Amino acid sequence: MTTQTTKTNERTGYSLGWFIDTDSEGAIMIHHSGTAASYSSHLLIYPTKNIVIAFLANTGTDTYFDKD
Questions:
Q1: CA pseudo-torsion sign 5, 67, 53, 43
Q2: pLDDT tens, 16-58?
Q3: What is the pLDDT, as a whole number, of residue 63?
Q4: How many Cα atoms are found within 13 Å in the side-chain-facing hemisphere of 58?
Q5: How many degrees, rounded to 5, is the angle at CA 7 between CA 27 and CA 15?
Q6: How far from 61 is each of 5, 22, 47, 56, CA to CA, in Å?
Q7: What was the pLDDT predicted at 47?
Q8: Computed from CA positions of residues 55, 66, 15, 37, in that sequence, does the dihedral angle turn out positive or negative?
Q9: pTM for this structure?
């Protein structure tokens, strides 16, 4: 769960299948989404707050997620 870095040590925000960001309050969040023909999903984890949120939708378009 650690973000990868480029050769110049820039953080990519991506960690072997997971996106790692901070929200508008500075809390660490780990997330990933997925879509198929008739559904979409997004999993959001706040490890320091012990919170997990799952978004599921009956649509083939991406579930909207705004980290701010």
A1: negative
A2: 778 888 888 999 999 988 887 788 888 999 999 999 999 888 8
A3: 53
A4: 0
A5: 35
A6: 30, 24, 27, 11
A7: 93
A8: positive
A9: 0.66
State whether the Cα torsion 52-27-35-12 is positive or negative. negative
List the one residue out of 25, 13, 16, 18 whose CA is nearest residue 49: 25
In this prediction, residue 4 has a pLDDT band, given cuts at 50, 70 and 90, of: confident
C-beta pairs of 1-9 under 8 Å, 24+ apart in sequence? 1/30, 1/47
3-state DSSP assignment of residue 44: strand
